[in-house]
Amino acid sequence: MINLTIDGQPVSVPEGTTILDAARKLNLDLPTLCYLNLEKIKYLNKVASCRICVVEVEGRRNLAPSCATPVSEGMKVITNSKRVLASRRKNLELIISNHPFECLVCAKSTDCELQKLVWEFGINTQRYTGERSEHPIDRSSGALKRDPNKCIMCRRCETMCNEVQTVGALTAFGRGFNTVVAPAEMNPIATSACVYCGQCVSVCPTAALTGVGYIKETWEALFNPKKHVVVQVAPAVRVAIGEEFGMEPGLPVTGKLVAGLRRLGFNAVFDTTFGADLTIIEESREIIERIEDGQEDLPILTSCCPGWINFLEHQFPDLKYIASTCKSPQQMTGAVVKTYYAQKMGIDPKDVVVVSVMPCIAKKYEAALPSEETYGIRDVDYVLTTREIAKMLKEGSINLNHIQDEDFDNPLGFSSGAGVIFGGSGGVLEAALRTVYARMTGHELEDVNFTAVRGMAGIREAEVQVGERTVRVAAVSGLGNARKVLEKIQRREERYDVIEIMACPGGCVNGGGQPYAEERDEIIEKRMHGLYQIDRNSRVRKSHQNPAIQALYEEFLGEAGSRKAHEILHVTGLMSAPADCPK
Amino acid sequence: MPEIRTGEQLASVYEQYKQLLSTRLGTVVDDDTRMILVCGGTGCHASESEMIVENFQALIHKNGLDGKVVCSISGCFGFCEKGPIVKVFPDNVFYVQVKPEDASEIFDQHILNGHKVKRLLYEDPILKEKMETAEDISFYKLQQRIALRNCGLINPEKIEEYIASGGYQSLAKVLTQMTPQQVIAEMIASGLRGRGGAGFSTGRKWEFASKYASEEKFVICNADEGDPGAFMDRSIMEGDSHSVIEGMMIAGYAIGAQQGYVYIRAEYPLAVKRLEIAIQQARANGLLGRDILGTGFNFDIAIRLGAGAFVCGEETALIHSLQGLRGEPATKPPFPAENGLWAKPTIVNNVETLANIPVIFQRGAQWFNSIGTKTSKGTKVFALAGKVNNVGLVEVPMGTTLREIIYDIGGGIKDGAEFKSAQTGGPSGGCIPKQYLDTPIDYESLQSIGSMMGSGGMIIMSEHDCMVNIARFYMEFIVEESCGRCVPCRIGNKRMLEILTGITEGRGTEADLDELRSLSETIIDTSLCGLGQTAPNPVLSTLKYFLDEYEAHVKEKRCPAGVCQKLMHYKILPEKCIGCTSCARGCPVSCISGTVKQVHTIDQSKCIKCGACMTRCKFGAVVRE
Amino acid sequence: MTNTPNHSPCVEQNHPQFKELDQYIEGLQIDPDDPRRKDTLIMTLHRAQEIFGYLPEVVQLHIAKKYSIPHADVSGVISFYNFFTTTPKGKIQVNVCLGTACYVNGANKVLQEFEQVLGIRSGQVTADGKFSIESLRCVGACGLAPVVTINHKVYGKVKPGDVREILEKFFIEEDKDVKEAAHA
């Protein structure tokens, strides 16, 4: 143990501890900006570039960055001398001198870490009025918005993209004053290697990286008397949206959300979880077919995560055909709304608008893909993130704290527990196993919990006995982990049968569209537990036992894998954008 | 030349080739042989010194004197102001400003007939006398060339000549007679400090690296030499690459490394070429590679080019560049000795530091220690440039005063102007005013007067230089070269530059001077690397010593040195103006009014200060102040 | 997009310039699994720029693939170093040294004169693609300040009055003689 003093107070910490962490032991919350440590998802951004966390160390000529300086025996640290405070303040003033002064109209206002620090430091003048960087704003992808003028070079996004997600779409570009983090050659993101997983958005402290918004379009649709506007809500949203209203992270607020959406004026409030059940029906049939065809046809990879599929198709093109051909729950729900539902209601599908509420940025990209349509009509029209719908609710004077629970509308409102656990990593796999087991053995599982594939670990593997067959499965979250597994598949190092892959570490509950959270590690787990809680309390816990799903097949689709099912619920060829653009 | 596989073989090769230098060293005087050395440094090379060599060689051949008279290129003689330089041995005659066509005159008169060509001899500007040998020339009198010992003596493209001058014998001694610990102890005893600028004890750096256990360690030669106005390392690389190679190998042996890299800036193609040749030759002769001199010691060297980034002279940025990344520095600690290239223990040494090493082992740490001051041992190479008469490369013992360098060696200020300041340490250093001319130069003394040793660039400024503009110039350089990683340097230096530019353009206020000081504090205190941490030095030192110039700029909107364009105004002297209208007709913005034969006036509010009127006036009526 | 279409490399990768680059890269024997494989990247970029004259995206992507690294890595490195350019330079590259020694000896005025005569600013290329001007930071020939290099040939002690004379040689030479003119 190393003994040191901070502001005169003694503290003992293990060797290798940084001054920042040692200070935290003393409840000294030193200000930080670029530093970010998310242990549970193995993310560490320690570039020491903002120079806000600096402290004085006796005997050291200059100030030390506390986030990157290890303690030493007998070290004497001062965190609040005039010299320290003057430099912290100056550096903050310098940062804002090259930052747009448009907080009032900025999407991150009240969620911005820079704004918070400026406010905490009591900075109320603009000391420097010199040159400002001028870069064009990039909305080219329709999903991820880049405003390089708000980049403070914290490098968090770069670290996430290159080290955790291993996508490699970002780099610091240029040198000196105008340097920002950007895709190669500062190209529009739509022509870069970006897969839109949105993890960079989650970690960006300012509005340099945000989602492209569709609130305006949604209001317009809602107020358009000619349109029949339908909304669907993803599983991961219901255990997170409460946070935007001051509620406990992970608390399921499904009923309240449904009620709120209805108040906003949606003609029908449907559940993406219904689509998840539908995905399981189609996918489990596919899984069984592939298993029975033999090992050369395996593994099969899930396909409900567009960030992941984008990654697969561009970085592992030789493996792209081993993914399931199923559309994602969002897309399936939208497709069913525009065919089955519209037909039932006697509405022209062209007048139906499907809005989905997702924890995710990639879903915005997915909804706009050429492949995601049925009979020439877009399955989903607009995608809003959890954050966006919270803003709309607030704009509509709706407070989820003071609203009574309501139920989803039928026929796309009833869902099983298997469907809802899609929102956490391992959930799709577990849900699939519940149905695959029944279909392959003819028996229903007593204990439907496959806890081996749950949790925050990047790769979880298990062997499941399905009748006489041992099915080797894996649940993977985070694209860096996906890369590891795919490389193993390429090298034929291990045998897998079914693999679920989610781009976001932890799964959709940690999506790029979820409420911003400082203590993210704990919150992700709480959201996950919320989903498993809903599953535990569900009347129906297996997708194939969902009566609404059964009705859909009886009335409309025929059977799983039918021609109609293929037309509406599957994609042929590549899902992602054409590969002729440089990646 | 055969492969050299043992120390004994090296000794015998030395015996075999030492007579190559005998003519030059005057150890053997044979009336028949002549050696003509032509400076092959970049400066003289640009002035076609290669042509001079070609011409001599043609003449030698034509006259059937091959073997008796030899002409070759050599490293930088240092007296760049008077290049191209040609030296004739054994007479040791020193010819200056030689053109290719002069070769035939020198050949006919001097080589064939023994008469020196007087018009090409150096003339001392004060004594008005012709100097024949280098030793007579005041430029050389106070110099002691240790790092530059072979520059101007040997042909750097011939390893035999390096061996003939005693090269690789220190390596042999170290490998066969000393343990790594003994090598380090000798290094520490010598007192050699890093010549790249930081001045850290070379021996101690090696000691740190040697203490970390690792299968892999690295020796890196920092040949990035980014300080504008510095060309010491370039001259050593061009004139004596082998000394650097030998120094790296001794370093490798001391710390336990088997791989060395020379990171050299791409702007030095000639140095790269000479280094490539040297490495190839060393390898071919068994002096680089595996089982060197039969001792089991392996060491090899690879060259890596920089690509135009001053910050890559900082050791951690250099390491990142070697790894194929953007040259952004890393937080220290940990230091490269512990965690460097590929996270292995690494030492980064400057070219000049390495060039000193073979001679330290040859003549002993005690000898090296006896030169210089109490804290700074040995010599330092300076690139003397700017407004001084004798621009060139000088090597002096530590403790030599600025006055001696500028006046005795440098020949005083150009055009008889007044000395104003000496800038040392490049963009990290400070400007030294005239009251400190008698400061003996060493690491500590320069720091105490607000500057630093730096890599050796020394720019002399006269009354015709505006110190505010100089500070602005250095800050402009810093802003261009800042890597962009940390806030105080990326944005802070930019704001400093904006303020300085404003001052030179007449928009400065007194509050600006306080802001410069305040920004400097934060930038020095919180920048991530040495570039940012020292960037405010030129500003702070000029504020300290030349406050009057700053105040003239902000209070009176006047530039005392007459440099800052926007603060100058052009005036027509009524007593001299005859009303010829030439100025008015030449004015691009038509701001001069007046009719024929009437005194003209300039409308200051419209004047763009282009100076066309002054150029056109034949009567001296237009003045600038 | 370039202003000198006859300089842009063919997208077809059978192009001789790509073959030349590949030869160089093959010599490096890059192992795609070696975590240290990027150490020769800067050397490769130098070579590529020598071959192509500049580093357009198609060349960057090619190099990225050969090294098994993301395009963003290559692009980020190129954007950091002064030497590398993603737009073509002129056939005749005028570099004026603005290092301290040269600056103090009036290099600024020399630069201004080049800009006036050629009609472009530093960092630009003439419309016919023949000339470009850049400012350098120290060639290390401070004894010859102010220093100008034109296609690697060093001119020392340049005064503004010398500029026209120096450039005249290049004005009258045919394109294919450019190299000879530079080495004259």
Oligomeric state, counting identical vs distinct chains:
heterotrimer
Low-confidence stretches of chain C: 1-10
Quote the distance from N terminus to C terminus of chain C.
Answer: 33 Å
H-E order of chain C:
HHHHEHHEEEHH
Tell me the strand percentage band of chain B: 5-15%
Give the C-alpha Rg of chain B.
27 Å
State the shape of chain B.
Answer: globular
Kindly report the spatial arrangement of strands forming the biggest sheet of chain C.
Answer: 2-1-3-4
Q: What do the pLDDT scores of chain C average to? A: 84
Give me the number of helical elements of chain B: 26
Which pair has the most extensive contact? Answer: B-C, 55 and 41 residues
Q: What structural class should be given to the helix and strand makeup of chain B?
A: alpha/beta
What's the helical proportion of residues of chain B? Answer: 25-40%
Largest sheet of chain C: 4 strands, mixed
What is the CA-CA span between the terminal residues of chain B?
Answer: 67 Å
What's the main sheet of chain B like? 5 strands, mixed
Ranges of chain B where pLDDT stays below 50 over 5 or more residues in a row are: none
Radius of gyration of chain C: 18 Å
Structure write-up:
The complex is a heterotrimer of chains A (583), B (625) and C (184). By secondary structure, chain A is an alpha/beta fold. Chain A is built from 18 helices and 21 strands. Chain A has helices spanning 19-25, 82-97, 113-120, 156-164, 199-203, 215-222, 254-264, 272-293, 306-315, 329-345, 362-367, 386-395, 417-420, 427-441, 479-490, 520-536, 547-557, 563-569, and strands at residues 2-6, 9-13, 36-38, 43-45, 54-57, 64-65, 76-78, 144-146, 170-173, 180-183, 209-211, 228-233, 268-271, 300-301, 352-358, 373-374, 377-378, 382-385, 459-466, 469-477, 498-502. A 5-stranded mixed β-sheet of chain A has the order 2-1-7-5-6, with helices on both faces. In chain A, strands 13-12-15-18 form a 4-stranded parallel β-sheet, with helices on both faces. A 4-stranded mixed β-sheet of chain A has the order 14-21-20-19, with helices on both faces. Chain C is of the alpha+beta class and 184 residues long. A 4-stranded mixed β-sheet of chain C has the order 2-1-3-4. The longest helix of chain C has 13 residues, at 16-28. The chains are: A alpha/beta (583), B alpha/beta (625), C alpha+beta (184). Chains in contact: A-B, A-C, B-C.
